[in-house]
Amino acid sequence: MFETEEKEHSLWVEKYRPVQIDNYVGNEDIISKVKVYIENGDIPHLLLYGVAGTGKTTIAKLITHNIDCDVMYVNASDERGIDTIRDKIRTFASTMGFSSGGKIIILDEADYLTRDAQAALRNTMETFSKNTRFILTCNYVEKIIDPIQSRCQVFAVHPPSKKDVAVRLVDILKEENVEFGMDDVATCVNSGYPDIRRVLNSAQRQIVNGKLTIDSHSALVANYITKVIDELKTKGSLKDKLFSIRTIIADSKTKTFEPLYQELFDEIDGWGKGHVGPLLLILAEAQAKDVHVVNKELNVAAMFVQILTELN
């Protein structure tokens, strides 16, 4: 069923990472362009951005797997300074290659690079573009300086639908001979979506004696967003509704709120009817702050004060 590159991997997220273009799920517009790049043997500089766990690195690795090239992989969250660009990346880019497809440098989580490192990278990309191409991935494209963006084909990588993620998880469970119920599959997907990596890791962690067994925490995380949205739809005082929402979030013990922002956005026409414009601005502001604040739960609570004030 699956064609995987490294069956020795014990982590499902790596073991079942697709190695053929046709096995990739979602982002059909990007994949169609990638196929053309591979067929022509001419890969431009690429910048892939989107929320964590949606397949950016997988696309980059698919490209390098399907052409004859020398590859360097750098995780910029670990190596983010200018020395990495000058010593490691520039050295690789400047030396002679041994593959017909030239060289490709995958710079993962490039939004962690310092401004000085990005400035040095810009010059390196320009100097060695004849033989070396760069594929950058990031969560926040606005953190990448304009000169780098202008040198790349920029693509927003979107998560596949929940249904597609569930189908993928079911296929993996069958491949691993794991017993499962569809309710438990739905809980895994809902608790981790849109981060596919989190969905797979969560499911694998909850295999007990060959059966998918959902723990109570995962069930709470999966259901808390639905409860929050239901609370937004009910009538009541701002004080009471805010208390209920804060209680739901606290009980879930979740520390990552990207799935909450996404679901609030997806369902905004239902819970925010008549106030969509102002509510979108509130959501966008809170999501933008999320990456910088120390206490993410406080940021979310402040967002709901604004939301409930607007709705009331």
Describe the structure.
The protein is α/β, with parallel strands linked by helices and 312 residues long. It is built from 15 helices and seven strands. It has helices at residues 12-15, 28-40, 56-65, 82-94, 115-127, 146-150, 162-175, 182-192, 196-205, 216-233, 238-252, 258-266, 268-271, 276-290, 296-311, and strands spanning 46-49, 70-75, 103-108, 132-138, 153-156, 207-208, 211-212. The strands form two sheets. Strands 2-3-4-1-5 form a five-stranded parallel β-sheet, with helices on both faces. α4 (82-94) links the parallel β2 and β3 (103-108). The mean pLDDT is 89.
In short:
The chain is 54% helix and 10% strand.
Q: How large, in whole angstroms, is the Cα Rg?
A: 22 Å
Dominant shape: globular
* Biggest sheet record: 5 strands, parallel
Helix content: 40-55%
How many angstroms separate the termini? 52 Å
Question: Mean pLDDT score, rounded?
Answer: 89
Order of strands across the main sheet: 2-3-4-1-5
Number of strands: 7
How many H/I helical runs?
15
Question: What are the secondary-structure elements, in order, as H or E?
Answer: HHEHEHEHEHEHHHEEHHHHHH
What structural class results from the helix and strand content?
alpha/beta
